[in-house]
Amino acid sequence: xxxxxxxxxHETAEWIGQQRMFFVATAALGESGHVNVSxxxxxxxxxxxxxxxxxxxxxGSGAETIAHLRENGRITFMFCAFExxxxxxxxxxxxxxxxxxxxxxxxxxxxFAPRPGIRSVIVADIDRVGSSCxxxxxLMEFSGDRDRLDRWAIAKGEGNLPGYWASKNARSIDGLxxxxx
Length: 181
Hints:
The chain is α+β, with helices and mostly antiparallel strands and about 180 residues long. Helices cover about 20% and strands about 35% of the residues.
């Protein structure tokens, strides 16, 4: 059985900052709705405080996280140690989507390194932190970030991304409103 805490400790925050990858999980409310788990990386995650986190939501082929957060706000982040001592940390909370047209977007996005293709910033208020052993997580060596998403966004052009979002990200796979509704 793991340990649970009400906030992210300084030590855990430092450990999270060293992880190159994280996972985001959300789910639709309906019985037939899907659960979504998305791998993320590229230095897009930040702890804003002991009970708040944010990440850059980069343009992708789906918008499940956005749709689920708009419907119910439930979100979980998971970090796994693929190097060093085994550990898994989960951050549980309520999330919201901050779009480029929202007042707080610029102040949030300015806290991250510049990236092409930013669709939104996901902000989560964390109410529970879980830590467990991670003994079953494999050891893997990091060889570098992929640059394909950045190259795709640059080639697409910032001015053309809203059209892509309207055609590809307007609804989730369950039909929930996502980007633009």
